[in-house]
């Protein structure tokens, strides 16, 4: 078992917010679903000309963004193309390009990741003129998260010392009051659990009385499903299912997303496992730590980042896939489209009808611009009753970062151990909540 204490890091344009644990803490605060008015959905077929109401002016937006000059965050040679369902990958061949991946979300449209042999901007200009193409945009890079690791124990403050800083603090520390006293490393994560009142919430809500587990999701570098703190008291994995948009151990895109076997570890970074532990590490199991939602929780894990980073397509194709699966899980098992669950365990397809109003998904990444494909996948998630819980960024500035600044998401800032705003955390009027974000000890 590996557990690590990780400190905050810098956040750069189009760079993942590394280990902003505040977002993971806040994921359990998800409330009623809210979102954009969804456009560009439905089973439309037949002939199209690009753009228009079908994609909220995405064609125009993509052209304007691309016309601003060279963007260092573009994934050179790669484009994301949205097309009507009748469009096949063959249309790209004549334009000296080839489809690397195809995603069908069964809504009348398909999304291609296309690699150009020549100039990608020229390819996009040409493909936009073809029948059935709704938009074409560059694929944008996300840097690999770089964790700052420390083996030192976070500073312990006595209840008296804590009360002098924050009079409303719980006393005694949360892990000392009987909820998770069987977790040998829990005291290393104690301050965050106490500040978030997580354990007090579990006293008011007896998870053992719940009819169904709480579903929560994460899109990150994957999850180490072998970790002992991701197994419940019956030695069953709390991971409902896991999928990856990238081949194991590489940044090669999957065609399409690939199911990850339970009891396997595809997380070659550690960031996703760390966030997942903060969210849902099992409590009172005599092992490691406990997460904020440490009982009766099922985790859905997506790997959209590798050791070398990721891109708009690798990350947001995961979010689109999650939206499609959650939509099906809200139906009776006998009414579901079984093709949506291809490659996943039978107990996922046969999962009881999901009545949970909101499914939170932790996404600790972002950049200082947003693009049509990313917005569209966020829309699909919100329409499916999924609440994206997004990190505010770690620049210590009041500057918009995306997707945190989008309408309808839960944007999370970070607090320090004295329960005040962390100096590295970004601010802005779009912030929804703050949560513990430094010296967070979690799974790896």
TrEMBL record:
InterPro entries: Peptidase_S8/S53_dom, Peptidase_S8/S53_dom_sf, Peptidase_S8_Asp-AS, Peptidase_S8_His-AS, Peptidase_S8_subtilisin-like, Peptidase_S8_subtilisin-rel. Residues 150-181 are annotated as: Disordered. Pfam families: Peptidase_S8. Keywords: Hydrolase, Membrane, Protease, Serine protease, Transmembrane, Transmembrane helix. It comes from the Bacteria. GO terms for biological process: proteolysis. The keyword Membrane applies. The chain crosses the membrane at residues 12-31. One of its GO terms (molecular function) is serine-type endopeptidase activity. PANTHER family: CEREVISIN-RELATED, PEPTIDASE S8. Belongs to the peptidase S8 family. This is PrtPII.
